[in-house]
Design a protein that fits this description.
mainly alpha, MetI-like fold, 2 domains, two-stranded antiparallel sheet, 15 helices, 4% strand
């Protein structure tokens, strides 16, 4: 009797056929993620939406809420014009950094996919930022570089100094906008390289998944390596391109050095919880729109074998 009851419960929960039970097990494996999503994202998200309309202060009995309506919105987003400029500047810098990271990762992945001596060591070296992904370590490295440049006489002009690059490019007749873009990119090259580890590994994995028969056909047809790249390698890597672009954008948006993140943390440190919540929610909505637009645009151009 008990065994029949157990069988009926299993059939009710997981389905009657083997295929239905196999598919239902996927939800069992997703259950911890769903619990975490509800506990650590959805519930805090609605709590943050509630806090945006209240002024939060610390009292004897803990946090006290006072309804203020849209006063905090007006104070943070409209009265303080620096926040709007800061958000727009963050978008521009993030898109620039994400594009440079993806291009750099693709170039390095192509080189690492070629057979040469020491390829395993080079791949492990490029994975070092993933293994040691500590913001503290990055600050130590920057501090060591800055200290060494000061001790060696930083007044001397080098090719990596922004002033030298700007002066040389302006003399070449380039516009100020292009010069500023190149100068800012070069000044942050260490950060971009440090953020490219995961993207490089994903591109390398994508290239290794391309069947070798595709390149054999290209060789038979007389295609050059350049043509093989644009006709085979790049189209097959477009799904990874979408993934890496989205990942790079989100990673750049949430970097501790991001001025918006710094401003939000400053609000929290000053016990201005309402202002921090409003700025955080505005930033979250902005990031979601940008990421959704990028995913939509790039996914339409992506090539999938199943299609």
């Amino acid at each position: 009797m008990k065994s029949n009851l157990g069988k009926r419960c299993v059939r009710t929960l997981f389905g009657k056929t083997v295929e239905q039970r196999r598919d239902s097990m996927g939800y069992v494996f997703l259950l911890p993620w769903l619990i975490g999503l509800v506990s650590f994202f959805i519930l805090p998200f609605f709590e943050a939406m509630y806090q945006m309309f209240y002024s939060m202060t610390l009292g004897e009995n803990g946090v006290q809420y006072t309804y203020v309506g849209g006063k905090v919105f007006k104070e943070v987003l409209w009265e303080n014009s620096n926040h709007i400029r800061m958000l727009l500047a963050s978008i521009g810098n993030t898109l620039r950094d994400a594009l440079l990271i993806v291009i750099f990762s693709l170039i390095v992945a192509i080189l690492l996919n070629k057979p040469f001596r020491g390829r395993g060591f080079c791949r492990a070296l490029m994975a070092l930022p993933i293994i040691v992904s500590s913001g503290v370590l990055m600050q130590v490295l920057k501090g060591d570089l800055l200290l060494s440049s000061v001790e060696s006489g930083a007044a001397a002009n080098t090719v990596f100094q922004g002033a030298v690059i700007e002066d040389a490019l302006l003399k070449m007749g380039l516009s100020v906008t292009v010069v500023n873009f190149i100068s800012n990119s070069v000044s942050t090259i260490l950060d971009l390289i440090w953020q490219s580890g995961i993207q490089i590994l994903l591109f390398v994995g994508g290239m290794q998944a391309i069947p070798s028969t595709y390149y054999e056909v290209c060789g038979v047809e007389g295609a050059s390596p350049w043509q093989s790249f644009w006709r085979v390698t790049f189209p097959m890597l477009t799904p990874f391109l979408v993934l890496n672009m989205v990942y790079a954008v989100i990673d750049s948006f949430t970097m501790p050095e991001n001025k918006v993140i710094v401003e939000i943390n400053e609000y929290f440190h000053n016990v201005l919880y309402s202002q921090a919540t409003v700025l955080s929610m505005a930033y979250f909505v902005l990031v979601s729109i940008i990421v959704g637009a990028i995913a939509l645009i790039f996914s339409r151009r992506a090539f999938y074998i199943e299609k």
